[in-house]
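Human: Can I borrow your eye for a moment on a structure tokenisation matter? Separate attempts, laid side by side, tell us more than any discussion would. Could you pick a protein and write out its sequence and tokenised fold? No explanation is needed for now; the record alone will do.

Assistant:
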Amino acid sequence: MDLVPALQEPLQQPLKSVLGPATAKVMAEHLGLHTVGDLLHHYPRRYEERGQLTHLADLPMDEHVTVVAQVADARLHTFASAKAPRGKGQRLEVTITDGSGRLQLVFFGHGVHKPHKELLPGTRAMFAGKVSVFNRRLQLAHPAYELLRGDGDETVETWAGALIPIYPATAKLESWKIGKALQTVLPTAEEAVDPLPDGLREGRGLVPLPEALLKIHRPHTKADIADARARLKWDEAFVLQVALARRRHADAQLPAVARTPKPDGLLTAFDDRLPFTLTEGQQKVSREIFGDLATEHPMHRLLQGEVGSGKTMVALRAMLAVVDAGGQAAMLAPTEVLAQQHHRSVVEMMGELAEGGMLGGSEHATKVVLLTGSMGAAARRQALLDLVTGEAGIVIGTHALIEDKVQFHDLGLVVVDEQHRFGVEQRDALRGKGRQPPHLLVMTATPIPRTVAMTVFGDLETSVLDQLPAGRSPIASHVVPAADKPHFLSRAWERVREEVENGHQAYVVCPRIGDEEVDPKKKSAEDDAEKRPPLAVLEVADQLAKGPLSGLKVEVLHGRMHPDDKDAVMRRFAAGETDVLVATTVIEVGVNVPNATAVVIMDADRFGVSQLHQLRGRVGRGSAPGLCLLVTEMPEASPARQRLNAVAATLDGFELSRIDLEQRREGDVLGQAQSGARTSLRMLAVIEDEEIIAEAREEATTVVEADPDLQNLPGLRTALDALLDEEREQYLEKG
């Protein structure tokens, strides 16, 4: 991060390597560490105390672990085998203990000699290996180990004092080897340039960067670790927030056309047609958006709203306001199914106001066109013509809208649906379609905790819709443990039949389509553990139609179908001609069929928390209550089951997104959220460190307003260049 020449030195060079070539190669390939600075920022995951042993009782299966423990006993066995038929085979079994539990180590063949001499009862050492089960007991086979001698020799010296740092390691490079490599480069920490302005650092009582790096890698006390962490968290939060503040500052300098709706124009005509009143939330958010649209800088707003909170209505009113003011509005959806759906619902909501230039169109009307990759040539030509002449005020489409051929008459507003599937570069490409940068409204139905919004979407202002419109019904959610209680699954299908008999419809969601070629060599470890691949749409639909749902009209929908077929299936389902739709997650966002009241999610443990919440939001969209059944074969005590119980226990998306974040690493959240978000948060925990992030955002805004180019803060500029280099690399990787 804070790289200066000494810290930019590569770990491996042709003539003089900082580390041995083999170590440097593994660090580059497996840990992404290339320079001295990278290695200094590879922080310990935790620390072991000499006197206090790790909990062998809590070891995770199949993970690479490092433990500090004492040898309780060691026994050498001989046995006969194919390789050693005369009983010459040797196996060394060593039992280690840490007071909380015991663990068996095994060594075979020639590998027994060294540990047999060294691992005597009473010896203490660090052991690293992958935890497996043999004869129902946990064991490490052929672990690497390093003796902890208390006789003042170099190992004790190297692992500074009483606290032993345990580093994120790989099977090819144990934690203590990383620790030794760090000891080699630690003196260069003195040359690290501090990115924090002096006033800020002193005002918050943070230690200087070189001191923080020394204390994180060679702490003498727990207080050292706390000082170092507090400081390094601030670095990460602050540098990231400065990058975002500069993006906001640059955006605010751009010119935009202010768009204010005509007093008695399209928007007024639309509002007069509405058969209901907007919720307070919708009115408040609309006021924020109209305020932004009326300024001469481009709006950059993120609109978060639970499934069904009426985001589309708010976005449509913003689009109508821009059309009223003489501009055009474009709405981008992540998939064709969704683009078609938005187009249908916008045209329905607008009625004759969407029939600009047609007989029967209202005097205020405009044209609403659809533009997707799979349209016929003639329809596409007409749509492009309507855009370039300005005949169409509103266009709804997929990424096809960003193509070079697409020209607008006067693009004033871009609405992006489900931003987390849509990168910064794509936003910028669309922005370049206007004569001046258009206003931007980003919508997401994935509830994002406030700090993640500040970290990932930090270049956008945020509005939240948290009320559900009148007429939305409650959804009951239940976990169906198919393996423990098969009769629960039979009851689930009975419930689906009951919903259909009452005139309603249902979804069944599966993780896989089922027409994929499964390469036997590529079976994942997960599938091995499960002994079966995830359930597939085509198989499940077939079994249901012949079995528990026979006699009902069952259809399938998945992403590999031809767009026209998909559209036809959705139309039949929306019209109530199909009773049960068996689908993949293509129905996750935006599909709106108020008559669908039940959703059964098969292998629910294979979906993320926010995905389950989105899928559940497909039901209860009308006046009848919704039912969501989460089917799983995972055992009661498993983390997957606890996750499902959490989803069943609350309908609050923000609460679920916190649970989701706590269970996954922040990197996943930031990485999936948008390309260019920094996934390498090494120290900062987005949920726990809410205060630091909020304060860093304020400080960053102040610093950037006073000195946008950071002329007076060379250390901060260096750190920022390093961060943005990583971002650029990620852009390229994701490109």
The first helix runs from residue 5 to 8. The radius of gyration is 30 Å. The CA atoms of residues 692 and 717 lie 21 Å apart. The longest strand covers residues 64-79.
